Amino acid sequence: GRRIAVLASGRGSNLQVLIDAIAAGRLNATIAGVFSDRPKAGALERARHASIPTTSLRPRDFDSRAAFDDALFSHVDTVQPDLIVCAGYMRLLSEHVVEARQGHMINIHPSLLPAFKGLHTHQQALAAGVREHGASVHFVTSELDGGPVIAQARVPVLDGDDADALAARVLTREHPLLLATVKVLAEGRVRLRDGTVTLDDRPLAAPLQL
Ligand code: GAR
Catalytic residues (predicted)? Predict the structure, then answer.
């Protein structure tokens, strides 16, 4: 199975889905380490509970973004990951660490990209008045939330939704979306070739709908 490194800043519910799928034999992979910019992240607790090695570094202990990223990714590199999954990792990544790992790093983002990049995506969706929202998994490139999209899941926006209600509806779909996407990546079926996502060696005309 492939070796996965997970980067996470928060509660780690997406990480938990991968942990549980591996434990249940539904994903043939190993989580080789979990890495965080927040020592108190719930994701680290979840990893320790599953006996996964963890590393957390504090950005304020470093002089620059590049110095922090170099340090964090020197730890990531020691676990020799085939795939790096950003699962609620909330820090911008320096261009050089991203470029060195193109095609090997993915991110889950809570919107139907290219709509609503950045933060507060559920508020952005409500403010825009869209009737459909969702989540995307994309290859990470140096453009924030701008890398090629692999797969998406769609949810309706309902009358009376606030950001929390919408976030909760999206999150229930993020979990199976991330798992299914990691699965096709771990099976080697999805790749990034010359900036284009391929499935079974054919270019994807549109993101997979999962
Ligand atoms: C998820 O909704 C994920 O899509 C989002 O953070 C949440 C993490 O939840 N990611 C981003 O906003 C990335 N910019 P989790 O910690 O429970 O997996």
Answer: 109 (proton donor)
pLDDT digits (tens, 9 = 90+) for 107-138: 999 999 999 999 999 999 999 999 999 999 99
For residue 107, how far is its CA from the centre of ligand 1 (angstroms)?
A: 9
Helix (H) / strand (E) element for 4: namely strand 2-7
Q: Is the complex ipTM more than 0.90? A: yes
Q: What are phi and psi of 199, to 5 degrees?
A: -120, 125
DSSP code at position 60: G
Active-site residue flag, 96? no
Q: Which of 49, 75, 104, 109 is catalytic?
A: 109
d(CA 199, CA 42): 34
Residues 85, 106, 127: CA angle, nearest 5 degrees: 105
Q: Output the ligand 1 site: residues, CB below 6 A.
A: 8, 10-14, 43, 87-88, 90, 108-110, 135, 171, 174
Q: Distance, CA 113 to ligand 1 centroid (Å)?
A: 14
**How does the average pLDDT of the chain come out, rounded?**
98
Question: Under 8 Å CB-to-CB from 76, ≥6 apart: which residues?
Answer: 5, 7, 33, 35, 84
The minimum-distance atom of ligand 1 relative to the CA of 108 is: 4
Strand partners, 161: none
Neighbouring CB atoms inside 10 A of 151's CB total: 24
Q: Are 110 and 170 in contact (CB under 8 A)?
A: yes
Give residue for tokens 């209600």.
165
